[in-house]
Amino acid sequence: MSIDTSLEAKRQIEICNACRYCEGYCSVFPAINNTKVFDKPSLTFLANLCHNCRGCYYACQFTPPHEFAINLPGILAEQRQESWQEFAWPRGFGQLFHRSGLAISLLVVIGAALMIWLINLLPGQENAEGFYRLLSHQTMVLIFIPAFLLPIFALVKSTRDFWASINGSALQVTHIKDALTTALSLKNLSGGHGEGCNFEDEDRFSLARTHAHHAVFIGFSLCFLSTSVATILHYFFNNPAPYDLISLPKLFGIPGGILLSVGSAYLAYLKTKADPELSSPKVWGGEMAFIVLLFLVSTSGLFLYILGGTSWLAELLAFHLGCVLALFLLTPYTKMVHGIYRVAALLRDAQLKSRT
Amino acid sequence: MDLFEKDFDVIVIGGGNAGLCAAISAAEQGAQVLILESAPKIYRGGNSRHTRNFRCMHRTEKFPLTGRYDEEEYFQDLIKVTGGKTDETLARLVIGQSEDCLDWMVEHGVRFQPSLSGTLSLSRTNAFFLGGGKALVNAYYRTAEALGVEVSYDTEVTDVKLEDNRVTEVCCRYQEREYRLTPKAVVVASGGFQSDIDWLADAWGPAARNFLIRGTPYNRGVVLKSLLDQDVLSVGDPTQCHAVAIDGRAPKYDGGIVTRLDCVPFSVVVNRDCERFYDEGEDVWPKRYAIWGRLVAAQPDQIGFSIIDSKSIDLFMPSVFPPIKADTLDELAKALELSQDGLKSTIEKFNQACTEGTFFPTELDGLSTRGLEIEKTNWARPIDTPPYYAYSLKPGVTFTYLGFKVDKNARVYSQKGPIDNLWAAGETMAGSILGQGYLAGFGMTIGTVFGRLAGGEAGSHVH
Questions:
Q1: Which residues of chain A have pLDDT under 70?
Q2: Which residues in chain A are contacts of B142 at CB distance < 8 A?
């Protein structure tokens, strides 16, 4: 963690602590009030508790060019980024992919090329329908089981290190309930009055980002559910893909794909409208590439369904699987990881609140 | 600029709380309204951007206010701080209408939050804006713009011309060019003159050059002077300003709330010559902070030093600047550029005069010194546990009292009588009601009530 970022975050937070006008916006300010010393653990915790709703920036009397030069969403975003990169395992991957949209794009291209190569190289599955004819179920399992398990291992390690670093202690059911309710409702993007955050149009409060995030989150969850259900059907009910329209994988997958596609496109659009200085400008490219990747995963999946019967199948399949592979592998090293750190910070916040 | 070619019904001078309430109210009457704001957009909103609540009468519990606060109690609170220097008719008008303001503010975009931590004592009387005064200002600009109100930033009004007891011209400067506008009606809401240091020094004396200005640097009293020079009637003591003691390291302008210091009651305060000059423990700080501006202003170089030891460092809200810290009184004196012997001798005398007793930081504990020329009558504990801490104190000016005489319709008067098409709101007329002292959150109440009145009157005048 850079000393400059921590010092600057501490300087700004101490000014906030002497003001407290923003107490009603989110969880960060009450947490600041209850913090005695702004050391590295507390700064890391506060930075990850911040959802970048930006309400405090537009309400602040002391933003630049004022000599106090407060930009709390900006400096907390820097601090947050540094913590994600520090706790990423292996660390070098975190540093590379958070910052570089190009690296993310390259990985997608490599993934897609790999799939094309495999489709051409391997015989596929005889007697199978749909895409298993091009790439056998067994091959897919061989690729995606490690691509699924390795990131989970990395995430568990990062989460444990992070939790220890912010002095997290044993959890109680009430903490989990509190944190999950707050996280799932995106309460910290509500502005305190339920009218949303300040993002795409300066100080105007809007629920656009909340709605876009809900779409992405629900869409992603439905897609994940679809894949999980399909796996169960495959192994336990001897019912492999492809599935009919009226089947559980499709009933979860199609709405999920549409929600994820629309939600990520909306998030990307909103991001182009927002002031990059109130976040971490260094990772703008990496974050945007990640949102585009979410869009490509879902949209290519939908196209695969629509155009599955055409001669485009092989190319579409390779591209879709390449995107999914990149998304899985990059989960610990892109914006995707924010969910885990946020929930951890909210859990810690619930613990600290229950003490006072 | 194209904007200045258009014909406006109403020009509002000043884009703070009062001006915005006036602009919105005039626009709701159907008037075409232009706000001339001297600050750039980032610093818009005058002193309102530094406020955090408004004082509100309420007969029943009403979010975010607790309990009840009736007209009589409110009025008596005002009498206490002003020593009776108030226009009772106008004061009761403001108090009476403050209750309606709460709903009006919510309808026009302002959001409230429960009393901030550390301000529980205000939860019954003052409604806190969610995000503070700048959030309120932002909300009003959004509402005004949605009603078609135009805003010109960086636009300083240089002159308001009167002929036959009506405003004929508003002269302003924008990007080095002069413009003359001829609206049908004008609302002045451009604050006091505290940011014109020359004027302040003329009024108060040369010591005023060492004062800090807590709020906007754009309240230079230009419109106030222009109109008073044309025989418009004034109220309020032209020599006085409201000042509190703030951190001496605060910026010259715009330091706002975070430069306040709450350590005085737990400290020993000395001047440049290491002498104490007032009872630091006379009363709880919310009741005493306002007099310390004057007390420090009367000291050589207009500076004081509040000295505590490690026993008290966690007893008050932190300031924006960390205290000066030292392990011995000698080192502390050196860091403060005070005489080492002088400081030590004052602190030793003080320590010897401390008496046994129980210390209660949150209430008058009667823990008093005995035998000093100036006793400290509460919270008097010896300064003897290193590390020692110090804050410098300087007077921080909040506002000036000089303003326009208005009637209950916010209309401005000249010696010839009511001016046909000129109204005033906010700090620029508050001297009628706040003749001296200050009541927390009352400035915003006056601004809201009179802003709405002035804008409504100006709006109906043009139709």
A1: 1-3
A2: 203-204
